[in-house]
Amino acid sequence: MSRGSNSHSPFVLGFSAIERSFPRGVKASSDGYPPYNIERVLGDSAGPARLRVIIAVAGFTADQLEVVEQQEQLVIRGRQTEERERSHLHRGIATRQFQRVFLLGEAMQVAHASLDRGLLSVELTPRASKQD
């Protein structure tokens, strides 16, 4: 069974030539947690097009989330600690750690991250070209 084109791998963010150079599912988490979206945000007169990674992180606070750009990768980690003082009658929301890794093209950088209503939004922008 064919898996189709690799040109739209959600784990490689940047330019299409870079996206095509990696196999589909590079650095993929095996269980799909937490769910995420990747949006292309069109540029305007104020700046070029950019990318936005949005991850559903309900139950996490800002201090339990880590967003790091390292070695051309965007690494997003969530760490919660077990709350011992609660007695659950039903527990459907797990206290669960996660790590999501996305490969970034050389031309992309993390601009900023924000947490709003249980969604972590990470903005990626093109790097400024080096002028000597």
UniProtKB/TrEMBL annotation:
UniProt entry keywords in alphabetical sequence: Stress response
Stored InterPro entries: A-crystallin/Hsp20_dom (IPR002068), HSP20-like_chaperone (IPR008978)
Residue intervals of the SHSP domain: 27-132
Segments traversing the membrane: none
Any Pfam family matching the protein: HSP20
Family matches, as PROSITE patterns: SHSP
Annotated family: Belongs to the small heat shock protein (HSP20) family.
The protein's name: Heat shock protein HSP20
Record organism: Methylocella silvestris (strain DSM 15510 / CIP 108128 / LMG 27833 / NCIMB 13906 / BL2)
